UniProtKB/TrEMBL annotation:
It comes from Rhizobium herbae. This is DNA-binding transcriptional LysR family regulator. Residues 5-62 form the HTH lysR-type domain. GO terms for molecular function: DNA binding. Belongs to the LysR transcriptional regulatory family.
Length: 302
C-alpha cells in the first residue's frame, strides 16, 4: 500500500494536522487549499480510513488520524535530524562513545570546553560499558579500553592504565597517616573501596595486590565498601570513606587540585590503556577530525 502513496501526501497531512486548517497548511507549503484537500482525500482513499472530521472550516482528527499524525511527525523529525549535518552553515553533529568512567571522569569536561569553543557543532555522547555499543560504526569517534588493536578502529593512545591507591587528604588526616609512607601491608589493613569487575581485564584491589613485586604478607580482607561502578568507588574516596584504586590518567584533575592523593609508592602498569579511535572503513567529517585532534592535545589541569 505504501508504494502507491506519494510521500508528498504525508508532508501535506503533517502540515494540515499542525495547522488544523487546509488554507493555512497550503500557505505554509506554497500550494492552494484545493491541492491540500485533494492530497488529504487521496491519502484517505489509499488508507481506507477517514483522517479528519470536517465541520465547515474547522477540522478535528479522527482516532486513526491521530495515530497516523504521531507516527508521521516522529518520522519527519527523525529525517530532519538526520539531514542536519548536510545543511549549509551548520557545523553538523559528532557522535562519540565512551565508557561511564571515562565519560564522567575525563571526557565530559573536555567536551564542554570543545562545545563552548565551537557552538555550531553538536555533540552526541553515548555512554556505555558494553563493548559492542562502544565499537559500533554508527559512532564517529570512540574511546576504548584496549591494548591498542581493533579490527574496525584505528586507535591512538590517550593514556596508559596506571593503577595506584588514592585517598582524600581528610581520610588520611583523620587516621594520622602519611600516605606517602604506607607500605602494601599498611594499605591492605585500611578501609579499601572496590568495584565490581564486569570485564575480565579490569583490575580490582585483589588482583592489584597480587601483581605487586612484594605482595602484602597479611591475608587480604574483603573491601570495606564495594560498588557496582568505578565512578561510585572514586566518589566514595573523594568523600573520605577510604582508599580506592585510582586509574591515574582518569583522575588527573582530582589529583592536580588535591582532592585525592597517592597512597604508598606502588603503581601498576597493566598493559592496557584508553585509546581514541577513528573508524577504519568510514570517512569522518572535518568536525570529527577537529575533535579528534583536540582530545589528543595535552591538557593542563587548572
Amino acid at each position: 500500500m505504501l508504494d502507491h502513496i506519494p510521500l508528498e501526501a504525508f508532508r501535506v497531512f503533517d502540515a494540515a494536522c499542525r495547522q488544523m486548517n487546509f488554507s493555512r497548511a497550503g500557505r505554509e507549503l506554497n500550494i492552494t487549499q484545493a491541492a491540500v484537500s485533494r492530497r488529504i482525500k487521496g491519502l484517505e482513499d489509499h488508507l481506507g480510513a477517514a483522517l479528519f472530521i470536517r465541520r465547515g472550516k474547522n477540522l478535528e482528527l479522527t482516532p486513526q488520524g491521530e495515530r497516523l499524525f504521531q507516527r508521521v511527525r516522529a518520522t519527519l523529525e527523525y529525517l530532519e535530524e538526520s539531514l542536519e549535518p548536510f545543511r549549509p552553515g551548520t557545523g553538523g553533529t559528532i557522535a562519540i562513545a565512551a565508557s561511564g568512567s571515562v565519560s564522567h571522569l575525563w571526557l565530559g569536561r573536555r567536551l564542554r570546553d570543545f562545545g563552548k569553543e565551537n557552538p555550531a557543532i553538536s555533540l552526541r555522547l553515548l555512554t556505555s560499558d558494553t563493548p559492542s555499543d562502544l565499537a559500533s560504526e554508527n559512532n564517529d569517534l570512540v574511546i576504548l579500553y584496549s591494548t591498542g588493536e581493533h579490527p574496525r578502529w584505528n586507535l591512538t593512545l590517550l593514556m596508559p592504565e596506571l593503577l595506584a591507591p588514592v585517598a582524600s587528604p581528610d581520610y588520611l588526616a583523620s587516621r594520622g597517616l602519611d600516605g606517602g609512607q604506607l607500605s602494601a601491608d599498611d594499605i591492605a589493613g585500611l578501609d579499601l573501596i572496590d568495584y565490581e569487575r564486569f570485564n575480565a581485564h579490569w583490575i580490582s584491589f585483589r588482583q592489584w595486590f597480587g601483581r605487586l613485586s612484594s605482595p602484602p604478607r597479611m591475608r587480604l580482607q574483603n573491601p570495606r565498601f564495594s560498588f557496582s561502578t568505578y565512578i561510585m568507588a572514586i566518589d566514595a574516596a573523594l568523600r573520605g570513606d577510604g582508599i580506592a584504586l585510582g586509574s591515574l590518567g582518569l583522575i588527573d584533575e582530582q589529583i592536580a587540585d588535591g582532592r585525592l592523593v597517592r597512597v604508598g609508592a606502588e603503581c601498576l602498569a597493566t598493559g592496557y590503556g584508553y585509546y581514541l579511535g577513528l573508524p577504519k572503513y568510514k570517512t569522518v567529517s572535518p568536525e570529527a577530525m577537529q575533535l579528534h585532534m583536540r582530545l589528543l592535545e595535552p591538557r593542563a589541569v587548572s
